Amino acid sequence: MSLRRRLKKILKYTFEGQTLTITPHSSESQLTIKIPRFFMFLILLVLIVYLLYATFMFRDYIQKYVASVEVIDYLESVKIENELLRTELVSLYRETEELRDDIIVLQRQGQRIQSIISEELLEDEEQFAHISTLEKLLSYKSYDINPGGLGGSTDFGLKHDAFGLIQGMHQDLKRLREAIPAQQQDMEHLEENVREYNAIMAATPSIWPLLDKGTGYISSSFGFRRDPFSGQQAFHEGIDIGVWYGTPVVATAEGTISFAGWRTGYGYTVMIDHGYGFETLYAHNSEIVVREGDRVKRGDVVAYSGNTGRSTAPHLHYEVRVNGIPHNPLKYINN
Q: What is the pLDDT of residues 221-238, one digit of tens each?
């Protein structure tokens, strides 16, 4: 069969269609409807397209439903996670508050130590080296720690490492909390050492014993010399300072008056017990202005120079004794 005939047959089959005859019961006439095959094909095509569309929409609905269920489950897990994180943050905040209080205590203790450091201690590099931890201990600040500042973000619910971060901070705070008692103990020892050093420095003779405005001079040194009365060699336990009559005599260190009165050979004499084994003596005075038991500070006037006792001219006999042994006073002047 030729191609032309085949094409003609297909078109005839498609467009001629089928004939539908309708015969009513009340009439003998018949209604004939002829339905083209093309129209039937079109209806079938529409049904197929509709079925495909319905299938696609149902599949899309199922996918969206499953996705929505997953989102709901995820949001629920995030909610639970955020509640746990909030609880952890509250605990962390309380720990930081306690730690801040401890650090403030350390800071105040450091400030107290700093306030009692004497100028002598700052100038004495050898002694200051023994408490070199002061600068480090005073470096504590009152840290401002708050949950909102952790890691620079508050969106913990979507960060899988949030619990690890908080756990690490708990461990850091624990280590700091464990270290603070040792630091406090070090600070207490340091404060004791500073106070002890200050007390020793306050008890150590360190100034010229006269308010002579630079007019006094050493007329007799410490050590062996020829005695001006006997002419024999004798050990001189102090120094003699030639000065005008009535020049104020001052305590060279803080201490307690252990003797104030007349002493054979020394005339009117003042002795001061400074503690830590230090004792000073001021002799040949014309007048004494303190009494035994008085507490004096460095620079306080205790007497006025004179020429009492075994003395050939107005002067001050000044001694420094350490544990009862005389030492050269010049080693303690401007010390």
A: 998 877 766 667 788 899
- CA distances 181 to 99, 136, 184, Å, are 11, 16, 5
pLDDT, tens only, 169-206: 777 777 777 777 877 787 788 888 888 888 888 899 99
Phi, psi angles (nearest 5°) of residue 87 = -65, -45
Cα end-to-end span (Å), the chain: 138
Q: Quick check: is 48 in a domain?
A: no
Q: Are residues 138 and 240 in the same domain?
A: no
**Backbone φ, ψ for residue 81 (5° rounding):** -60, -45
Contact criterion met (CB below 8 Å) for 51 and 28: no
Closest to 252 in 3D by CA, of 301, 304, 206: 206
Are the CB atoms for 318 and 327 separated by under 8 Å? no
Is pTM beyond 0.70 here?
A: no
Domain count of the chain?
2
